[in-house]
Input
Amino acid sequence: MNYSRVCYVRWRNILSRLRPEQKLSSQKELLEVNERMTVSDEAESMLKKMLPSLASGDEPAGRNHSEDDEFLNIASEEKIDMDSIRARGFLKYRYNYKPPDDLESQVKEAVNEVLIDINDDIRSIDLTKDRRLKFQLLDLLGERLCHVVPNSELHQMKTVGDLIDFYGRPFRNLTEYAQMARDNKQTLPKNLHIMEHPFRFHPEDTHSYHGEIAERMDQYPTKRYNFKTKKFKNI
Output
C-alpha cells in the first residue's frame, strides 16, 4: 500500500516535469479557488460583529424586526379583508369602487394626454379606430382611478362616453344577499330576517344552545331530543 503511494507521487512529479503546462494550469486553478474563498473586508467586519453574539447565543444587536412586525400586523384579523377573499371566486371585482366627484375632468385630462385630435364634446370621441390609443387610454384611467374595465366589457367601450358611464358606476365586492344581510333592516320588511353566515352544527361545542347534544344522543339511540324542552322523548 505504501509502496504504491510512493510510486504514484514519483510518477506525478515526473509527469509534471515532462508537461509543465499542466502544472501551470493546476496552479491557476488553485489561485482562482483561493480568490473565491477570500473574504472581503466588509464581510470580514460584519462577521467579527456577529461572532460575539453567536457565541453567547443572543441575536445580533443591529437586527431590525420592523419588517417582521409589519408582516404580523398585516396578517392580523383586523387588517385582513375577508370580503375581498370571498369575492375571488364568482365576483368581477375584489375591491370596492366609488366614482370620484371630478370624474369627467380626470377623464378629459387623460384624453388630452393620449389623443391628439380632440373635439369639444369628448363623449363623442370614437375609440374603435385606433386600438393602440384605446389601450393607452384604458391603461392610464385604470392606473389613476384604481379600477379597470373587465375583459367581458372591453368591446362595449366604443367611445369616451362609454368610459365615463362605466367609471361613473360604483362597484362593491359583496353579493346582493350579503348586502341585504348587512342592511340592518333599514329597507327590509319587519318580518324578514337574513343571516349572512350559516350557523353550523358542531357536536363538541358545549357553549352552544344544544349543549353538546350529539354526545348524549349516542347514549339514547331510541329517543328523540326536543330542542324546546331540552329533554329526550321516546320515539
